[in-house]
Amino acid sequence: MEQRxxxxxxxxxxxxxxxxxxxxxxxxxxxxxxxSCTKCGTPIDLxxxxxxxxxxxxxxxxxxxxxxxxxxxxxxxGSFSEFGxxxxxxxPLNFFDLKSYQDRINDIRAETGVxxxxxxxxxxxxxxPVVLCVMDFAFxxxxxxxxxxxxxxRAVDIAIxxxxxxxxxxxxxxxxxxxxxxxxxxxxxxxxxxxxxxxEKIPYISVLANPTTGxxxxxxxxxxxVILAEPEALICFxxxxxxxxxxx
Length: 248
Hints:
By secondary structure, this protein is an alpha/beta fold. The chain is built from seven helices and nine strands. Helix 4 runs parallel beside helix 5 and helix 5 runs parallel beside helix 6. The N terminus is likely disordered. Keywords: ATP-binding, Fatty acid biosynthesis, Fatty acid metabolism, Lipid biosynthesis, Lipid metabolism, Metal-binding, Nucleotide-binding, Transferase, Zinc, Zinc-finger. This is Acetyl-CoA carboxylase carboxyl transferase subunit beta.
């Protein structure tokens, strides 16, 4: 017998901001804390940008968000409880380019204030309990290594144990080359975890933020029951810069 699942998506109201004509420089009255829209170049005061949910009031382009800020905007206040926050990457290959992998990781942790490219936890959204995973592109391009793969699998375990829907926000350049084949193995590992969600009939929602590429896209990002994406987000396996370097 066919079963139909109805998913209700609640969009919180955001205040309407008056659109202004595009300008090449910040207009009078805009503070020095203004930034330019990545797409249309319109200068936007940071306070106005936050009021508009970090979308450009001129062209509605979705600006980059840190994982912490995305969680803050999405979940009910005070409801997020993180797990796996102490898990950190090792250096299985003793990888070295301009600096050692471990030194690079330490520098990025100090710069971003997060320990890995994915933050996971329990939360409620409009009083509905969920398991939430959010990737952070600022942490090594949101690349997937052993810790990201293990966090995703742990999130699946909790979603099944507690019968909570799993919601994942992806923004990633793909697998983390500094961890070699162990990073690529996470593609198979996370794919198998998604299959367990299907077997247990646990809803899985994937939200593709800009950009979502490579091994993350080819594994758990595109296997959800419901797949959403930011408008005009770069969604691909191989990015345009790589293609340009290889075939011109």
